[in-house]
Amino acid sequence: MKTLLKFVFFIPFIVIVIISCQQIKNITHTLSSFSSLRFKIENITEFKLAGVPIATKSSINDFSPIDAVKIGQEIARNKLPASFIINIAVKNPNTGVGGTKPIPVTIKQMSWTLFIDGIQTVSGKLQKEFQYPASNTVGHLPLEVSIDLFEFFGNRGYDGLINLALYLGGIKSDPSKIAIEAIPTFSTPFGDYQSPKIRITSDSFN
Q1: Domain residue spans of the chain
Q2: Contact between 90 and 129 (Cβ < 8 Å)
Q3: 9 vs 99, residue with greater confidence
Q4: Confidence of residue 189 (pLDDT cuts 50, 70, 90)
């Protein structure tokens, strides 16, 4: 009788162990199949040069005399403040395709460094979290940038600085001149994951 009672009480323990092992196995399988988010620079918007919007401009001649004087005064002080938004397209590959578990991912934090024409410039960190569901929908990450272009490109002179700004944020804006090196930390239902350093360009999703 005592043996029978021991066996009866032992059954729930076995069940708990089996369930716990299966849960651990599922979590391990999910983590092993986890893929980091993929990034690609989409475009540059809201570019302002010394406070002057340049999205509709294609050459130095498009600036009004007042705007040209304003920019010229900044350059005369060895400064040329610029602000813009780098819009990054984001893909979450953890959609559940191929028998893997769909995993929503949040960018909890990300430190980044901006390269322009291959030259390392300013660095920063995200100010808030961004969430990306487990779907095939492409999400977005707006990266706000403030930079003194003169500090890094002042040797190009007035025309060179203006042309660089127009190439980045003018009417024919081309994001191929920029790249971002970043170290994101992802938050998942199973904990945080810090990615190795990644390089984000406009060429393809990385």
Answers
A1: 33-200
A2: no
A3: 99
A4: confident
